[in-house]
Inverse folding.
């Protein structure tokens, strides 16, 4: 839960989440944060660095900047999460067929999940970006299991075509690192950043 230090920081400044992700919203609410949501403009993710760390830092910054241009006050939070297997960034699948391809690639292997965070403080013009990384080990997957999972519709709006906190938990053998980073918002990292940007 939120520490008294973080609570006092957020009493002074309005937190704005620059994301439509229901998972990020849920994590912040569970932690006791009060915030509003302002959606960023659509950003072309194809013109972004292929290096995973630079990729998530750049996209989280662009999302935060997009919202910062449209508001005069507050603390804007932008975030971006990607799944990386053997150096290849696996985004959200375009359709069920692509979800099948992604999940077959991930089966029985370890991959990394990166989330980039950017905070922009409108009161002092500070910008801070950082990231977290979690290693995820998948079980061996049968084609039937993949097809049944895709039929639920859950994989279609998620990086890497799975939701670790939902029905997709059966795919995962274990993780090394923070679970909330895989879900899309690493709270430990965010709390560290909040203390540094006020």
């Amino acid at each position: 839960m939120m520490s008294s230090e973080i609570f006092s920081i957020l009493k002074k400044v309005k937190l704005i989440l620059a994301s439509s992700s229901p998972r990020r919203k849920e994590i912040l609410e569970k932690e006791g944060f009060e915030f509003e949501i302002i959606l960023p403009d659509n950003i072309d993710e194809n013109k972004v660095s292929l290096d995973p760390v630079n990729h998530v830092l750049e996209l989280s910054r662009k999302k935060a900047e997009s919202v910062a241009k449209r508001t005069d006050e507050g603390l804007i939070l932008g975030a971006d999460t990607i799944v990386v297997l053997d150096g290849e960034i696996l985004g959200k699948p375009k359709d069920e067929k692509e979800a099948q391809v992604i999940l077959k690639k991930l089966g029985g292997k370890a991959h990394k999940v990166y989330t980039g965070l950017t905070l922009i403080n409108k009161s002092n013009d500070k910008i801070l970006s950082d990231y977290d990384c979690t290693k995820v080990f998948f079980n061996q997957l049968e084609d039937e299991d993949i097809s049944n999972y895709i039929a639920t519709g859950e994989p279609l709006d998620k990086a890497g075509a799975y939701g670790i906190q939902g029905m997709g938990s059966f795919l995962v053998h274990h993780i090394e690192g923070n679970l909330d980073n895989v879900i899309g918002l690493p709270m430990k990292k965010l709390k560290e950043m909040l203390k540094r940007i006020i």
Observations:
- The mean pLDDT is 93.
- The longest helix spans residues 52-68.
- The CA atoms of residues 161 and 193 lie 29 Å apart.
- The helical segments are 4-12, 22-30, 52-68, 96-106, 143-151, 179-183, 187-197.
